[in-house]
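Let us practice reading a record.
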Amino acid sequence: MSRNGLITSVKSAIACKTMPINKQEILDAFWFRHACKEFDATRKISDEDFAFILETARLSPCSFGLEPWKFLVVQNSGLREKLKQHTWGGQKQLPTASHVIVTLQRKSHFMRYDSVYVQNFMREVQKFPEEAAVARTAILEKFQRRDFALLESERAISDWAAKQTYLPLANMMTAAAMIGIDSCPIEGFERKELEQVAAENMAVDLDQWGITYLLAFGYRKGEPARPKTRQDMDAVVEWFL
C-alpha cells in the first residue's frame, strides 16, 4: 500500500470510530510512555502504524496555523551514523530505533507577518479570502510586533517558531504510546554540526531551516530503569474560583 493509501486508511478508521474513547486507556498510555534509552533493533514499526504517527504530527495545532515545520524520516543507517557523531543524547537510540525523525523549523524571516511564506500560506493553504487574509495579517502583525515583541530580534521569532514544533512532538509520542510504540525525544546534539550534516547529506537549505529536535521510535529493549515520577496534582495546578 502507498503512503497516501495508508494515510487514507488511518483517516477512515478514525472517521468510523463509534465507541467512546476510554479515558483510562489514554492515561495508561501516558504512564507507559518514557524516554526509551535503547530499542529492540530486531523489531520494526509497521508502515500503517508509522503513517498513523505521522498523521498526528500533520494534524497538530500551532500558532496562527502557520505550520513552521518539516519532518525528515531517516531510515538510512549510514546517515544515522553521521547524525550519531554529533548527537550525544542519542548514542543508543539512533542505531536501534525502528524510525528516526529529524524535525525542522522555518527560519525567522519566513515567519514574519509580511513574509512571502506567510502571505502565500494564508491564501493557498488556509484558503482565506483576500479580505480575511488582510485582516488576519493585521492581527498577526499586532501579535508579533506588540503583544509578544517577536520582531525585536531574530532569536525571539525563531524561538516562537520552534515552540510550535514541540506540539507535534508531544502528539506523536502520545499517539505512539497509545498503540504500544516507544519513543525518545532527543535534544542532546551539537546543533551547528548536525545542521551541517543535514545540509550536506539531506539537501536541507540552512537559509530556510534549522533543526529543533530528533525523535526516535521503536520497541523498548527492556523495561525502564526506574519508575515514572511526577509531582502531585496540587503542586502543579492551582484553581481560582
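A brief commentary: The chain has a mean pLDDT of 94.
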